[in-house]
Amino acid sequence: DGLSQTSRELAEASQGQVLYGGDVLASLDILRNVSDTFRRAPFQPSSDDIQNLLQSYSNLVADIHREHWEDTSVIYSAISNFMDMLEGFLHIIGEGMKYYYDSYFVKENLVVGVSKLSAADVAGDIVFPVKGRRGMPDWVRASNDRVLISRSSFARASAEKYLTESPVFVVGIVIYKHLETFLPKPRNNTIVQSRIISVSMNPAPDVVRLELDFSHTANGTNSYCAFWDPVNINYSICGWSGAGCKTMFSDAFRTKCRCEHFSSFTILAQPGFKMKINRSRSLSLTLIVGCSFSSLALILLMIVHFTFWRSVKSDRSLLLFNFCISIISSNILILIGETQTYNKVTCTVVAVFLHFFFLASFCWVLTEAWQSFMAVRGVSMKRIVRKRFLCLGWGLPALVVASSVGFTKSSGYGTIHYCWLSLEGGLLYSFVGPAAVVVLVVNMILGIVVFNKLVAKDAIADKALKHRAGASLWSSCVVLPLLALTWMCAVLAITDPRSFLFPVLFCVFNSLQGLVIFVVNCILKKE
């Protein structure tokens, strides 16, 4: 009970409060004492104890404490103790786990993976983090950071070192969000170019085959792999050494390493012209082409309608104008958002309005289907009906977005990597849910009703009315799938900068969407 209370109080005390140099050292002492006690105790830490202690580790490396770590005057030993103690605590967690079991712990400033496995039963390489695993934060999803422990390390240990029974290993891996920024800048005109990744295994095998992939967080040249070696600090670059590691591949965005030992690793480089790099800030050519082509086609369509307004004036044309405005606005916001991830306020505003216009585009397709439904029923478009269309096209998206912003207090709108809804916390469903309802339910029902009415024996006698209803139905059936595919690829292209496929698909579908809307509503329109 005493250990649990201490763990809980430390997590609460370090949460959101500024810790000065002495507080940091005192917190490290508490963590060390608690870990040592658990190591000697005949019982394992409870699930709450584990969560509280990992939360304390995460709190200590929060942004608000960065400057005060430097006040410790023994920052190298403090950082070393921090990483060593966390590594040791992961092994304590692993000892209490069942065989062949993996545990993942996600905190604000670090992501942890612990595995307990028998060498004889390791079927393949150990990879962390597992791509596509749910619950990973955005800063992990948006990076190429990855650890691979070769199966050969376990096979050699099983065959050579242990003759009677297969050894059981505990593997601990930590990806730190921004621990590299807590360290003093390396000398010799060198910068730390990536996050820090810690890898450990207990007991350590005789032969280690370890591969690491790093995404660059700073611009630099001559990138190479390094590990934390504070023991030989006088002979290393401010605690970093490259011994036992080999750089397998490096480009402007990532570096691949192969190392022969376990430690805490990062990438060092010579500084480039810009100290900070974020690929999401540089506009992708595919996004520019897709958004520009689509917007130009829709703007041209609106100009043509304005020019021949007397001939094309109709309620359907009014719906089309609003639909075009929603798509053009979305395209503009996508391009703006790609360059504003560094500005939290602007990025949040862009994400909110992008959410609104994305939903609005679906709702205006729905209004066109509704208009077709009213046409086949012979209902005339009165002013009150037009107001209802406006409420559906603009009011419903505004209500959904306002509710989402109010409920979340704008948390989840915009991240450090993209100006869109965060993948965490379920906020994305406030877009996917309404869009799916519009696409799969309402439009489908209205489309079936209108189609049946058009082909029925007692079909509409008025040929002009029948033509307008059929044109609206056909337009909805063509545009809606393209709209869904376009915005789906847009979301995937924005949230996954590592992918080359989704930006290309977005470019194709968005360009095709603008072209199809122009052809259907201009070239193929008799008026």
From TrEMBL:
Tagged with keyword Ligase: no
Gene3D superfamilies per UniProt: 1.25.40.610, 2.60.220.50, Rhodopsin 7-helix transmembrane proteins
Molecular-function GO term, any one: G protein-coupled receptor activity
Segments forming domain G-protein coupled receptors family 2 profile: 283-525
Domain of life: Eukaryota
Limits of the GAIN-B domain: 101-275
Species name: Petromyzon marinus
Keywords: Cell membrane, Disulfide bond, Membrane, Repeat, Transmembrane, Transmembrane helix
Location relative to the cell: Cell membrane
Topological relation to the membrane, as annotated: Multi-pass membrane protein
One GO-annotated biological process of the protein: adenylate cyclase-activating G protein-coupled receptor signaling pathway
Lineage: Eukaryota, Metazoa, Chordata, Craniata, Vertebrata
Membrane-spanning intervals of the chain: 283-306, 318-336, 348-367, 388-407, 427-451, 472-494, 500-524
Protein name, entry field: Adhesion G protein-coupled receptor B3
GO cellular component: plasma membrane
Signal peptide feature range: none
Matching PROSITE patterns: G_PROTEIN_RECEP_F2_4, GAIN_B
